[in-house]
């Protein structure tokens, strides 16, 4: 049995709440889609009707019926709710994050035991690494390695919590005797320094939500000049999607107050080591 016509949910939370309330009224096929949707919201945000239908094991027409049963005029309208989830509201302040960690899950208990904090972060880091391995295609890694290894100069740009990733990449590329320049913003000359880039160079931008406006501005200006831009970011719908030559997304495996840097550091290490192998193979072929 399908759902009667209802007002279409406008937020992901309302959508999942609606599905939970009316789950028993769905037909078998629509229930199958609903269960996939709540378990794989990112896939729902980024997939096509046909690819999702194939992954779920239903006909494409069932995807349309599912959207209609929730009050949407079509699949695309429903998909916007899943996409909005990926670029949701700004994160809370650091003071709020610390208060949240101290309160704990029940809102009252104070969490301060170092071993418990360590266990939480280890669990989140393991999840983030598993997500990274599944999220970054081999073809994208190969393309990134070639772009960086063959650039005249690799410029690196990041601010805030993203900065350690860019710094490590600069360190690794320098150890490989490649020309690397970290745009650290010291002296307020980051825009002026970025102007020297040419189309033979590559700009690597590391930026996660909340995306630093100055970083985005520099990346936009550089991309407009035809300079290749490689972005390490969180989700495919970040503000860099339209300007990036290549985007590597590490995702967010957890909604915990402090977000892990383990996955992006792992990705940075992967790039440095893979570039080293690429250079060794190239030099061996030349000799």
Automatic annotation (TrEMBL):
HTH rpiR-type domain segment(s): 13-89
One function term, GO molecular function aspect: DNA binding
Signal peptide annotation: none
Pfam families the record matches: HTH_6, SIS
InterPro entries registered for this protein in UniProt: Homeodomain-like_sf, HTH_RpiR, RpiR-like, RpiR-like_SIS, SIS_dom, SIS_dom_sf, WH-like_DNA-bd_sf
Membrane spanning residue stretches: none
A biological process term (GO) from this entry: carbohydrate derivative metabolic process
Ranges where the SIS domain occurs: 144-287
Keywords per UniProt: DNA-binding, Transcription, Transcription regulation
Descriptive protein name: MurR/RpiR family transcriptional regulator
Origin species: Prosthecodimorpha staleyi
High-level lineage: Bacteria, Pseudomonadati, Pseudomonadota, Alphaproteobacteria, Hyphomicrobiales
